[in-house]
C-alpha cells in the first residue's frame, strides 16, 4: 500500500509507504484527504483511517529543479517501450549521435531502440542510414515525472496529480 503526499498547497511531493504516511498522520504532521476502504488501523492511542492521499499541515519548501535525470529506464518509459526507428518493441536505448562522435547522454540524444535497429545502425547517425525518427525526443514533463513513484498511480490520486500538470 502506497500513499500520495501533498504539500500544504496541494502540490504532489512524493509517494511514501503506508507506514510512513500513518506515522505522519499520527504525529499531526499530515491530515488524511482520501481514505482506503476497509478496517481502520488500531493503535494504543485510538484508531486511524488508512490513508490513500495525505496533505502536510505545514508547507515544505522543496529545493530542486524541474530537471528530470536521464536514465535508461526513463528513456524506455518516455518512448513507451517502442523503437524510435521501426516502432517495434524496444529493449535497449540508442544514441542518435553516437558517443564516439561526441553524442551526449541527454533526453534529446537518446531514444528507445530494438536490438535489430541498434545492431544495424551501429556507429552511424540516422541520416547516414536514411532513417527517420518516429518522434523528436525531448525531456519528459508532467507530475508523473516530477513526483517519484507516480508511474504506478492509484485512481484516487488522479485529481491531485492533474492539479500539478
TrEMBL record:
Sequence ranges assigned to domain HNH nuclease in this UniProt record: 70-119
Keywords annotated in UniProt: Endonuclease, Hydrolase, Nuclease
Pfam families per the UniProt record, alphabetical: HNH_5
Single GO molecular function: endonuclease activity
Family matches, as InterPro entries: HNH_5 (IPR029471), HNH_nuc (IPR003615), NA-targeting_endonuclease (IPR052892)
Residue runs in coiled coils: none
Superkingdom of the organism of origin: Bacteria
Protein's name according to its UniProt entry: HNH endonuclease
